[in-house]
Amino acid sequence: MLAVENLSVEFRTRxxxxxxxxxxxxxxxxxETVGIVGESxxxxxxMAFTLLGVLDRAGQVTAGRALFQTDSVAVDLLKEPxxxxxxxxxxELSMIFQNPRTALNPIRRVGRQIADVLRCHxxxxxxxxxxxxxxxxxSVRIPDPDKRFDAYPYELxxxxxxxxxxxxxxxxxxxxxxxxxxxxxxxxTTQATVMNLIKDLAEQRQMATILITHDLALAAEYCDxxxxxxxxxxxxxxxxxxxxxxxxxxxxxxLIAATPEPHKSFAELIPIGGNxxxxxxxxLPPCRFSYRCDYFEPSVCNQTPLSREFLSPQHxxxxxxxx
Amino acid sequence: xxNSQPPLLQVKNLTKTFPVxxxxxxxxxxxxxxxxxxxxxxxxxGESGCGKSTLVRLITRLLDVTAGEIxxxxxxxxxxxxxxxxxxxxxxxIQLVFQDPTDSLNPRFTAYDTITEPIKRLSSVQGRQQLQxxxxxxxxxxGLPQDLxxxxxxxxxxxxxxxxxxxxxxxxxxxxxxxxxxTSALDVSVQAVILHLLADLKKRLGMSYLFVSHDLNVVRxxxxxxxxxxxxxxxxxxxxxxxxxxxxxxxxxxLISAIPSFTAQPxxxxxxxxxxxxxxxxxxxxRLYGRCPKGEDLCHQVMPELTELSSNHQAACHFPxxxxxxx
Lengths: 323, 327
Description:
CATH class of the domain at 2-223 in chain B: Alpha Beta
Largest sheet of chain B: 8 strands, mixed
Protein name (chain B): ABC transporter ATP-binding protein
Number of helices of chain A: 12
GO molecular function, one term (chain B): ATP hydrolysis activity
Low-confidence stretches of chain A: none
Family (chain B): Belongs to the ABC transporter superfamily.
Domain ABC transporter (chain B): 9-256
Oligomer: heterodimer
Distance between the termini of chain B: 22 Å
Radius of gyration of chain A: 21 Å
Keywords (chain B): ATP-binding, Nucleotide-binding, Transport
Number of strands of chain B: 12
């Protein structure tokens, strides 16, 4: 359904060119949930913005394709002109943004914001917009939708705002949903409710979901496959179960070791040393993890281009010396 | 054994209400009582909006109390007005580490300025050389390279900013360090480093922690005892292993069942519906009523009080979750 191939994005800044994404690739099938995990600054959100065509003006796609195919459309998202992207966004693919409070229009009633999406992308007569928007509010299990329709975002709790965002994103039954940290700032009980909701709706509608998060445990619970990113590279991509039982990239293994878990003692919580490399540096090594890697061996790891070996048809790792 | 020495912090029936409109009061913190021993780490968990932050602001005396008492060491803090507290000698004894390391640092202060600010104001350490020596010592203590002391917040990474915030808080050798979600804005990799640092500092400096978080995995690692808060009330309190392995309050049970993990597939116990309104709550209805899977008649006739269920383990529920599994 979506195939991203060899995607590279650069940002021109006053102090140099930031190579934010380099040769990123992954695919997603209808109905599948793919998690994209990594530290902040690893390029997760840049990728989401690139796919939607809402990248900051300083950003430039320097290579790659993003083929998006459904029953009704087949396009390369990176080549489409803005006018046709406008038709696609909100209808075929849509996004749940990180912070619902800043993503919603603060001076427009939430019900109307949903009606706006419907007005843009469907042929529904004006008279039916309200009832359809109310249906959407009910489908994301907002209690008392009639009353909440006329609420402003500031009148609603974080969990409710997040559900409004979801209703907004799903109003036109998109085929692909990009959820960028949909639950940061929500507490665990609300998080579980929101995630279950997205999962149920995805199953009902055969919608593909990209879940961007830095919470490995959350990704483990809800994703079929996981793509691990580090400093603008995809370092490993695998089905969830094999990623956690047999991580093959040293970074994945370290991420897992650094995540607190219910049955982990303090001694088992091992921080990842070092920082992300400076993506502006002219002499970035082929493997951007090499500075932090325990297994780094210059003669092997500095070969170009970086190995992107398939260890099995589903399991790809970008490492010369996989674990 | 716990009663052999007076507690470092004792909170009695602490209440804070905020007026909202005519005759309406939002009960942010409602009749909260607990104690914290010297050298103990207590976790405070609960969902957003349950009053955790208000409680923290009351204890650190950034807010005036509506009713109730706060005893700290040998003083009563609750009667001191917020305006007077900065001049109070006990101000140095309670320090706070804030949630977002970026927002809580003055962007125009270098790391050195930030760390020495409380020393200049509240301690006898004065004079350029002494201050510099103390700042260097604190930087070493929190693992901040000394050459970064001259940098401004925007020149520091998230982990380094968190270290500056911690150095500022421990600069006056406080007896109680209140940590308000210190790691929620950090990446997993940095979070692990900061957690190790906090555990290490506690051991070396013998501070007590009041650790506020909604990340239960983190609380479990760092705390001896946990207080679970729901809509302004403490609904359960007990030793950390007890709370995690044998929660007795239905809310705690739901909270723990919702922790994501990558080893086992947890089955979250759904709390359906929205929380009750904290504005003029009915004092005889349990706060969880309506979301609680139990919810019997008694629950909306009599407010359950915190009762001792086993040693040091209290829950406020008429129908506590069975502890059959408890050994």
